[in-house]
Amino acid sequence: MLLRTDWTLDEVKAIYNLPVLELVSQAAAIHAQTQATGEVQVCTLLSVKTGGCPEDCAYCPQAARYHTGVQAHKLLPDAEVLAAAQRAKDGGSTRFCMGAAWREIRDNRDFDRVLGMVEQVNGMGLEVCCTLGMLNEYQAERLKQAGLYAYNHNLDTSREKYDDIITTRTYDDRLNTLEHVRKAGISVCSGGIIGLGETDEDRIAMLHTLATLPQHPESVPVNALVPVQGTPLADQPRVSVWEMLRMIGTARILMPHTMVRLSAGRQEMPVTEQALCFLAGANSIFSGEKLLTTPNPDFDADKQMFALLGLKPRKSFKDVPEGAMVLGKEAGVVA
């Protein structure tokens, strides 16, 4: 299938506004052409440094300025991180993501320690992902050399809505980080959050931005806001499954080879709703008790769901050609 990065805003809008069953049908057909149906990547996300963040993201319980009850802690010991990675692997995860509540990476001992964690988790045979805030080209290159497989840096929302949600960094700051990640040869993971009080036009604009990057992100997380008391968005209503289906289905049609990740908010979704999301093109989830600091379905619940729906976990490094792995690291290959 021909990949397009020249979608117009009107084209994206027309897809997004299809009757929802027609949208799901078209997305399912494209998914069957470009992905292994019935295969879902299972990922686990661990907060390796929690709270105390200087940013003002209106949705985030880790922002120091909000009183959310989140207990801040410094960078976890290596042994604790590796034990969590082993539990994730034993539970069926093939990608392990480490998140730190930093505005940006600083070249210090903590970053050196994260590089060591990346190397060790990569040696366990897991795809390693990090979300550490903004980074520069040199830092991206160091992460690549350590064996980092993917870097997550979400756009969160549209450029037009962005300043209502975050004022401590710009939309272009986010795009620049994605450019540095791509230049280093690291897989790009970037999506957004719905339920922030945005309009359909904002959702369409965010999807348009992602689908018209020079190269599609290898992974696009679709998050439903999990409102947290103490944040400015604490009283936002729950996102409906129909809204999630529009985001997932549109993302699948626009970016057919991308992993579309059913992410935050899954704890509130019954299996029937999650099944519809898989039908619409979602083929990745986060499993484990928490997504950083918010509740998430555990491994046992997801194993039961997989058995019921006939799903199987995607293998690690599936898109890396045979012979491309050197000492447990990729030899310049991006999946």
From TrEMBL:
CDD domains: Radical_SAM. Signal peptide: none annotated. This is Biotin synthase. Keywords: 2Fe-2S, 4Fe-4S, Biotin biosynthesis, Iron, Iron-sulfur, Metal-binding, S-adenosyl-L-methionine, Transferase. The gene is bioB. [2Fe-2S] cluster binds at C97, C129, C189, R261. Its cofactor is [2Fe-2S] cluster; [4Fe-4S] cluster. It catalyses: (4R,5S)-dethiobiotin + (sulfur carrier)-SH + 2 reduced [2Fe-2S]-[ferredoxin] + 2 S-adenosyl-L-methionine = (sulfur carrier)-H + biotin + 2 5'-deoxyadenosine + 2 L-methionine + 2 oxidized [2Fe-2S]-[ferredoxin]. It comes from Hymenobacter lutimineralis. Residues 38-266 form the Radical SAM core domain. The lineage of its organism: Bacteria, Pseudomonadati, Bacteroidota, Cytophagia, Cytophagales. Binds 1 [2Fe-2S] cluster. The cluster is coordinated with 3 cysteines and 1 arginine. Binds 1 [4Fe-4S] cluster. The cluster is coordinated with 3 cysteines and an exchangeable S-adenosyl-L-methionine. It comes from the Bacteria.
